[in-house]
Structure formats: structure tokens, C-alpha cells
Amino acid sequence: MNLRKLCGALALYVPLTANAAEPQQPTPLVMVDDFAVTNLHYAIFSSQNNGDADSDPQKQIALLNELVNTYMVANSEAGQELAKHPEIAAAISVSNARLIAQALISEHLENTPVSDEQLQALYQTKYAQSTNQEFKARHILLETEQEAKAVIDELTKGADFAELARTKSIGPSKSVGGDLGWFTPKRMVAPFSEATIAMKNGQVSDAPVKTQFGWHVIERLDSRELPTPSLEEVRGELEQQLRTASLSKFIRDLRENTKIEVISSDAKVVK
Predict the structure, then answer these.
(1) Could you tell me the pTM of the whole model?
(2) How far is CA 68 from CA 44, 74, 149, in A?
(3) 141, 214 in Cβ contact below 8 A?
(4) pLDDT by residue (tens digit) across 112-129?
(5) Which of 43, 72, 120, 185 meets the CB 3.0–4.6 Å disulfide criterion with 193?
(6) What phi and psi, each to the nearest 5 degrees, are found at residue 138?
(7) Residue 162 burial (CB < 10 Å; 0-12/13-18/19+)?
(8) 184: pLDDT strictly greater than 80
């Protein structure tokens, strides 16, 4: 077997893509007994090795030798017998299923058509019809409502907000006086955002705000309107969102039309 003669051919291979317009056709490179190792096998094997051998003939030869050895061992009598072992067979089955599923998902995301009407509708909902505002605020986070009310009482009597944040807050922003910088409502948990939106600039919350992190005393420092991005600026993001929604529907439809039966008392199927 003269592998050196294959160097020119190997240098011309095109890596596989799941949605290639003209899929590559397999071209046999080496016969291992009656099994043909093809250019597609080599392309995949090379990509799994970071494509290090793409431009180096000596590395190509070494990589092809490694691929031949891999198939030689796997296709041997001992290898085929081991493939019947339940754990190995299950691993092969899972690997095959994962590969096919990932390729199909990638193809679906790449090829799902997105119309201008869909883009316009999503843009109107997400951007054009919403107020794009951000806020600058600081807070003091306490463990109990009573502690938060006590802090509000101190602030009412003239205590310094930043100093109370540094000495009493249990939040990570205590080192900077509770300053959270600028943020959009979506970045914060809902109760915190809703309370901040309802306040005026310079106002301190007159009642503690409860979230899953504890009890907050909030001071809204400032607010400003952000420019609404144009459709072209967010086209890629919206297209991806529409394709992802289409993929979710595709998977839901598959599940609704697939018979899934729990046959083990220990098995759990999440619907």
C-alpha cells in the first residue's frame, strides 16, 4: 500500500458540511480487507484531529495510517465481537443518534425560510412598539423585611445611602456603595425592575422590594431613552429567533406524533 501517492488527493478534500448544496461523493482511498476507507472518512477524521494535517504531506500520511489502523482494529473479529457488548452497542447507538440529530437540527436552522413579513412582525413586537429605556440605580440588600424598613427609616432621617450600602448590604455591590450602574429592565429580576420603573429619578423606594435574593432598598438615580435599532441592525438576531422557534415547533410536532412508552418504573420522561 503506497500511501505517498495519496498525498495530492488528500490535500484537495473538502470538509463535510451538513447542508452542502452539492454533497461530496465518497472516493475510495484505501481498502482494508473488503472495507473502503474513503475521502469522506478521511475528511471527518482530519476534522476531529483539528485539521492539523491539511497542508503537510507527511502528517497526511501519518493521519491516514492512523485512520486505516482504526478501521483495521474496529473491523477485526475481536473488534466486531466487542461491538456486540451491551455498553459498546449502546454507546455506538447514542453516538449515531446524536450525530444524525445534530445534523438535522443544524440543517433545519440553516434552511428554514424567513419571510420579510415574519421579520417585520417580530421587529414591531420586540422593538418598534416597546419603550427602550435604561436606568441607573443603587440598592441595599438585606436578609429581612424588618432590616430593610429600618434602613429606609435611617435614610428618611438623612443617612447617606452609599455608606449604609457599604456597612449593611449583603449584596456584591456593597463595595461600591450599592451602585448597579446602567441597566435595562430585562437584566434585573421582575420585582426589582418594576419597582425601579415606577419610581422617579432621585427617589428612594418607600417600601422594601422583595426578590429571591432578599429585601432591597432601591434608589433610582437616573434614566434615559435608548435609540431603537433599525430592522437591518437586528435582522440576524430576529432571523435566528424565528428559526429557533420553527425548530422548537418541529421537535414538538415530532414528539406529538411519536409513540413514547415508559416501560421501567425508574424511567422519567419529561414532556
Answers:
(1) 0.59
(2) 13, 10, 74
(3) yes
(4) 999 999 999 999 988 876
(5) 185
(6) -135, 160
(7) middle
(8) yes
